[in-house]
Amino acid sequence: MRIGDFSTRTGLSIDTLRYYERIGLMPPPARDGGGSRQYSDDHLRWAEFLDVLKSTGMGVRDMARYCALRADGAASIGERLAMLRGHLDRVRAERRRLAQVETLLSEKITTFQAVVDGSLDPSDLTCQISPATGATTHDDQRIGARPRAHRRAEPGL
pLDDT tens digits, residue range 35-52? Predict the structure, then answer.
């Protein structure tokens, strides 16, 4: 398929495809008699894999390294395996971090909804930032709510 069709199918701009080819991220396609690029289904599968790596946060430099190793064939499988395992570990760590963020946001939403519904007084909201870690700490089970005896409103929560 020609570069325009390939661009449409992959969602990558023509300039991006040329850039990827120039830096070794995309194997060079065959050329027809007129010199136009002719991408194959293998190129399409490779572009889809690159999109997966990119969406998981792998940098262009690491993707180019992986592509260079791929060109070495079976001799580089061990190194590619190590790269993918390391990247998977980073993806899993990021997923755990995002799960914590999701929990914090859900709890905040629940607390603020309680204020909107009138079941929690806004003056009961408080939040403390740990100077040591920068982490948010809370005084009771309901995130952001402080026991009545220790009521202190902090703006911006």
Answer: 999 999 999 999 999 999
